[in-house]
Amino acid sequence: MRRAPKTVLAVNSIRSALLRIAFIGVLSLVWHTQALADCSLTSTGFTPVNDLWPGSYQNYAGGLYPKGANNAPPEHLAAGIDRATNQIRPLNAFGDYDPVNGQIVMISVGMSNTTQEFSRFVPMASADPTKNPQLVIVDGAQSGKDASAWADPTAVTWATVNFRLSSAGVTPAQVQVAWVKQAEVGPNSLGAFPLHAQVLQTDLEAIARNLKTNYPNIKIAYYSSRTRAYTDVASSHNPEPFAYESAFSVRWMIENQINGTGNLNFDSNRGAVVAPWLAWGPYLWADGTNPRSDGFVWFCSDPSQNDFTHPSASGDQKVAQELLAFFKTHPTATPWFLRPPV
Q: Is residue 83 within 8 Å of 277, Cβ to Cβ?
């Protein structure tokens, strides 16, 4: 029998070595995924920000709004109610008031978690008999697009939103409301708290201004922070405590608008309008199995078992239910979200 040429033997040897490396790599990947998952993290020891007052986190006071409050200051809330009641109206494709055939468009802006959750919310809201029939809800959030991917008003992310609007039969001129949920991928590389939270805050503020640039008729943008992560591996996408700390990014941004700082003006009586009225949407972080004061929890089954950062089907359902309850009850949402009285 003739022996195989040396070159063939060498190629086979290399192929075998590559297969062994690939197999080891797969095992390593499986182990790494499992290493990120830790259902024993039932408690981080952190108090949800909406329950934190009169306490503080690293010398930053609790509460979703200034002075430990979980509701917007009266003047800011009144401005939001005015926009919801008197300024959000059905518009035609050119942005002109059309009470009969016009539509009110709400979009989402965010990352993979956001699009998963909002994609569950859209059919849930559409099936609700109390929803305004002139309200069109479009998921604009996109997988793999963290806050930094939206910070430029000409970024491709915004073009994708506009494509989805067109596919839904509406236009950018009809967009009047947004739900924004964002984070930074790999926040561990951005410095210790509060540095990474300040980076996120800067991008969230840029997103608010970009909403006004790209959707000139937008009136309100609601922001939410991250859900609970069941991993504290610093190298993962968005582990604890970064998920918890993202709430401060949202709060500081809203405080800037309330205080008239940060180039976020929404009131034409105070100068050029560069952003919509900003407020908290539903606050979604809970310390695992420890119920918040309102009973909200985030079990180990609620994040995906692949990375314990993205939501699972049950997590999507929970967030969608929180969104629906918020828009059906909040005084700045009910005037445009619910079916008008006959």
A: yes
Structure tokens at 109: 């802006």
* Each residue's pLDDT tens digit, 135-156: 999 999 999 999 999 999 999 9
SS3 state of residue 137: strand
What was the pLDDT predicted at 236? 87
- Is the pTM for the entire model greater than 0.85? yes
Determine contact, residues 200/251, Cβ cutoff 8 Å: no
pLDDT of residue 237: 87
User: β-strands 60-61, 56-57: how paired?
Assistant: antiparallel
Residue 303 has phi, psi (to 5 degrees) of -85, 160
Residue 212 to residue 108: CA distance in whole angstroms: 14
- Residue 250 sits at the vertex; the CA angle it makes with 246 and 254, to the nearest 5 degrees, is 165
Residues 176/219, Cβ–Cβ less than 8 Å:
yes
